[in-house]
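Teaching assistant's notes for section 4

Start the section by putting this record on the projector. Ask students to predict, before seeing the second block, whether MmcQ/YjbR family DNA-binding protein will look compact or extended. Collect guesses on the board.
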Amino acid sequence: MDKTTIETICLNLTGTIQDYKKEWEATRFLVGNKMYAMIGGDSEGKPILTLKCDPNRSEELRANHDRIIPGYYMNKKHWNSIYFDSSISSELVEKLIIHSYSLVLQSLPKKIQKEISQS
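Reveal the predicted structure now:
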C-alpha cells in the first residue's frame, strides 16, 4: 500500500485531521486530537505506517507477519509499525487502520465521540 492510499483511507474516516510533525518527520492522522496513525520512517529511513492495536492482536500480527514490528518509537504493547515494502495485503492494512481509529475514538469522552459522529 502506498502513502496516497493510506492518506485517502484515513481522511475518509469521520473527524480525522492530518498534520505533519516536523520533529518526527512524520505525517500524523488524529481523531479527537489523538493520534491513531502515523506515516514516517525507521532508523534507516525505510517508510513505515504505525498504528494503534489491541495488545493481544498485536502479538498475533507480529507472529504471522515479519514486516509488522513493535511500534517504532511508540509503546510497543499498544502500537505496531508496518513496512510499506511488505507483502501484507491492502485489505489487512485498511482493516488495521480502521481498528486503530476505532480504538482511539472509543477512548475519547462520550461528548467528543458524539461531536465527531455528528460532524
